[in-house]
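Give me the fold.
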Amino acid sequence: MSLARLPLIFLAAMLVQWWWMTHFTLFGLAPQVLLVLTVALAARQGALAAMFCGFSWGLFLDIMSPRLFGANALALTLIAYGTGSVRRQIDMAGLAPQSLVVVSMTWAYFLLLGFLGLVFDPAKTFFWVGWPAFLIDPFYNCALTAAVFAAWLPPRWEHHRGMA
């Protein structure tokens, strides 16, 4: 992905996340578009660019749902850092590794939000997303990962062979 496309993708991602959360939920569940894009960006570009986008996208999510302001920004920043660190050990050029990382990072994201609620919420409650979201959203995000992978994040090896 070129640096010229990043601002367009950044703004379009926020629009898609808003639209999906407000108009296109399936049984009250919606994929975390910004989480998937943060993981994909960290897998392709590294932790630094993904941490910047993840933090900004997290602030956007915090504005949309201000229960624990700043929790999404911190969580997406840590998810980007974690994915950027994992990419040194795992070849994330394929769809299968990215999907596995998205599933695990979705669960990590939900648990991190819960623990941030315990620490920073005045009521000291675990910020729980609910069992349906915890059990179904990781696989919903995995399906979205396949779409993102196919749409605008082709594997690096294709660029080297002149196929893309």
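The CA atoms of residues 118 and 124 lie 5 Å apart.
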